[in-house]
Write a structure and sequence with these properties.
The protein is α/β, with parallel strands linked by helices. It is 33% helix and 26% strand.
Length: 494
């Protein structure tokens, strides 16, 4: 037995988030931990990786009782964690990040940069990545940054690697590459704890599955004996037979017209219409231009050409602030970079974009603000202790709900949702789809950009597929299949 957790218990602010949880991991095994947001997955990972300490319970490593007081001690014991948002230093190079805090020294004080670069190149080549060790992290794509995080774990000769939503930002091809890496790790006897909300991945990569619910262990079973429906039932405690609401079919007046929109090096000649009553989806592989297009519509990026009309009025936003004043809202796939204020309470994170509605004579009506925040909390079922709790203490999925709820409070007319369900569990996804459906019925504009093809097929009236910065296919709901979308996104569909 590589790792064994015995009756781990942890509470925050008097609330028990882990209640006598047992878990074990064998060498050469991929053991998945599943559960809804707030089930206790993140807390369990923090206890194993030394970020937090258990209130009670025991941790055994290779049969020996251990205490893991810090992340440094976890690394010394051979435990590495690769988080959904990689903890890399943006202004440092790949080599500097991989060996941060463990730089090889000559005579005890001279850093051996050449040795670092040589070792980095060797590890990256092993992973199948042709990245230069001198490349700054901030210039890398999300998938390449994740490769660096994995390379860092390999360089530490980890016995246990914890992967938290490793495929959330990856294309299908990149996911396959990651799975091949995992198979290599398994063959080397590395134990992997795998956390994901993408249930389709489990059969292909996982050996066992453990499900948590409300901080308690529900079941552990071999992955091959678990079907997706059973997993969902154990996660949510009930049968979720209707995952997607009915797709909107009654289309109303034109809301938006985009014509010939271009930005050099990002997207070219983008034209589309958006109507009342429809959910318009955008599909595409990584770097196909969807995220950049969303940023352009929201005023983050100045375009080189083209026009945007909203309700027959030409709009030119020079900043996101102008977009917000026009009642546009953007839920970004990277909530940290998109304006999540970690040290501020949930309530203020929810109301920050709608303060103009709560402002009277330059004073904020705090009672009205708290009421608006509470309405969003209830509507999105955000799990927390109270609205004044700092958002950094929420699970990743609940943080994502807050970022969506921000635009509900602001009463936005257009919602641009870029990977809106990233890191959100299956039950919360169903709830969010219902909210999206309700907003569309109210006449709101809805654009959904997602790498989850089944999600787009399940909720969208129309899907526009992008390839290398261009729209290459338009697919209506009744014609949408995964095969056609993937073929178009790969540039194969004519």
């Amino acid at each position: 037995m590589l790792l064994q957790l015995n009756k781990l218990t942890k509470s925050f602010f008097g609330v028990t988030v882990l209640d006598h949880v047992n878990f074990d991991l064998h060498a050469g095994e991929v053991h998945a931990i599943l559960g809804q947001n707030g089930a206790g997955k993140s807390t369990l990972v923090k206890l194993i990786s030394g970020v937090e300490q258990p209130d009670s319970g025991e941790i055994y490593l290779d049969g020996q009782l251990v205490r893991i007081p810090t992340t440094i001690e976890a690394q010394r014991l051979g435990i590495s964690t690769i988080y959904q948002e990689t903890a890399l230093v943006p202004d440092m190079t790949i080599a500097e990040n991989i060996f941060l805090g463990r730089e090889p020294k000559l005579f005890g004080f001279l850093t051996q940069y050449r040795k670092m670069k040589t070792a980095t190149r060797k590890i990256l080549k092993q992973l199948g990545y042709a990245l230069h060790p001198n490349t700054p992290i901030r210039t890398l794509s999300t998938s390449d940054q994740q490769a660096v995080a994995i390379a860092k774990a390999i360089s530490q000769q980890s016995k246990i690697i914890i992967m938290d939503e490793p495929t959330a930002s990856l294309t299908e091809q990149e996911t396959e590459r990651l799975f091949r890496m995992i198979e290599t790790f398994k063959a080397q006897g590395v134990g992997i704890i795998y956390i994901t909300h993408r249930l389709k991945e489990l059969q292909g990569i996982c050996d066992r599955i453990t499900i948590l619910r409300d901080g308690q262990h529900v079941i552990t079973r071999d992955a091959k004996h678990f079907c997706e429906k059973e997993i969902i039932t154990h996660m949510v405690g009930k049968d979720l037979s209707l995952h997607f609401p009915p797709v909107p079919v009654e289309i109303g007046a034109q809301l938006m017209q985009v014509s010939g929109l271009s930005k050099r090096g990002q997207f070219t000649d983008i034209s589309f219409d958006l109507y009342e009553g429809e959910i318009l989806g955008f599909a595409g592989l990584a770097d196909s231009g969807g995220t950049e297009l969303a940023n352009a519509i929201f005023g983050r990026v100045r375009v080189d050409g083209g026009s945007i009309y909203w309700r027959d009025e030409k709009i030119v936003f020079r900043s996101p602030r102008q977009a917000v004043r026009h009642r546009f809202g953007l839920v970004d796939k990277d909530r940290v970079k998109a304006g999540m204020f970690s040290d501020m309470p949930v309530s203020r994170n929810l109301t920050i974009s709608g303060l103009r509605m709560l402002n009277k004579w330059h004073f904020i009506n705090e009672e009205k603000e708290q009421g608006k925040a509470l309405d969003a909390v209830i509507q999105l079922d955000i799990k927390m202790i109270d609205p004044e709790q700092e958002i950094k203490f929420l699970s990743g999925g609940n943080q994502q709900k807050v970022m969506f709820g921000r635009w509900l409070v602001a009463d936005s007319d257009l919602y641009i949702l870029n990977e809106p369900t990233r890191g959100i569990d299956i039950g919360a996804k169903s709830e969010l789809y219902v909210v999206i459906h309700e907003l569309v019925q109210q006449g709101k504009g809805m654009i959904v950009i997602s790498s989850d093809i089944s999600e787009l097929i399940g909720i969208c009236t129309r899907i526009l597929v992008m390839h290398e910065g261009r729209i290459v296919d338009q697919i209506y709901h009744e014609q949408a299949t995964e095969e056609r979308i993937l073929s178009s996104a790969s540039g194969l569909h004519s």
